[in-house]
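Quiz preparation item.
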């Protein structure tokens, strides 16, 4: 864990789509059949990545989210902005594929099942950045219990409501632990909020004291300050790096040294665990923005085959 105020420069990488010219207009049109669509050929372990997509989206079937009572992107931003205006605590988290898998250990999946799954194999490689960064090793009962407790305490919970297999796993996890979030949103909205809800996202940042937490927090601090500080008048009071679940205790201690209004996190299951703790212990707003942290660095939407081929960027931009 590093607490750092000296940043590197964010660099656009393959698999990122620039929509800077579309921020205030309609959702960009993208040809999903184009050869320019993000490829999986970005890592020697690409077979594991392909297996993950096969395991988590075998049918590629899309659910009907209107059957759920979901917050729209505008409604989600409104609740965050209201909490900031009223100086009330609020935690916004998301249960992604990895988080659901962590929570499923020894409850839904036996040790043999989850240890032989590509998700565990990827996590146990210990990669520290990018798509393969998980910040956890399996088996990990402590992380499972921490995650279950955090979801129970969170105010707003996101998860993949659009892809049937991913939605089913998350629902199974929630039912197993008798967790019933009152407020739910589509987790992939976090990738596009700063574009689809540009004005509200900027209102969330404007004039605030902001704490960033995640493996890319230092990069995000520098990028935000260079791009938006003069316009929005915020103050990023700190950037705390976290790479592994075992660093959570250190991060909790580091947080105590900062005064802030808003904490933005991106650390996988570790962000899910930290956000409710931050909201309850500090009385502040803690928002797990996931891959949105990368977008704060590049000014671009982070794309992968999940978003490009299965869900659809146009659909997410409209939600």
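Solution:
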């Amino acid at each position: 864990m590093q607490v750092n105020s000296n940043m590197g420069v964010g660099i656009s990488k393959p698999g990122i789509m620039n929509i800077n010219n579309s921020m205030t207009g309609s959702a960009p049109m993208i040809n999903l059949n184009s050869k320019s669509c993000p490829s999986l050929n970005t890592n020697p372990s690409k077979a594991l990545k392909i297996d993950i997509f096969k395991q988590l989206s075998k049918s590629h079937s899309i659910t009907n989210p209107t059957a759920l009572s979901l917050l729209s992107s505008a409604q989600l931003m409104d609740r965050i902005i209201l909490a900031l205006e009223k100086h009330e605590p609020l935690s916004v988290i998301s249960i992604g594929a990895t988080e659901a898998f962590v929570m499923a250990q020894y409850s839904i999946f036996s040790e043999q099942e989850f240890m032989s799954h590509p998700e565990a194999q990827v996590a146990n490689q210990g990669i520290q950045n990018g798509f393969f960064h998980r910040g956890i090793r399996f088996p990990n009962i402590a992380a499972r219990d921490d995650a279950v407790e955090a979801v129970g305490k969170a105010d707003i919970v996101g998860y993949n409501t659009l892809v049937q297999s991913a939605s089913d796993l998350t629902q199974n996890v929630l039912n197993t632990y008798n967790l019933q979030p009152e407020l739910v949103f589509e987790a992939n909205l976090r990738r596009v909020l700063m574009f689809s809800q540009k004005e509200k996202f900027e209102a969330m940042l404007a004039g605030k004291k902001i704490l960033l937490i995640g493996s890319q927090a230092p990069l995000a601090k520098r990028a935000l300050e260079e791009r938006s500080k003069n316009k929005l008048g915020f103050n990023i009071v700190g950037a705390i790096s976290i790479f592994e679940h075992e660093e959570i205790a250190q991060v909790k201690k580091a947080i105590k040294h900062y005064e802030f209004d808003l904490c933005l996190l991106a650390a996988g299951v570790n962000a899910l665990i930290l956000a409710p703790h931050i909201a309850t212990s500090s009385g502040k707003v803690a928002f797990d923005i996931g891959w949105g942290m990368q977008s704060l660095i590049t000014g671009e939407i982070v794309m992968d085959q999940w978003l490009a081929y299965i869900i659809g960027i146009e659909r997410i931009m409209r939600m």
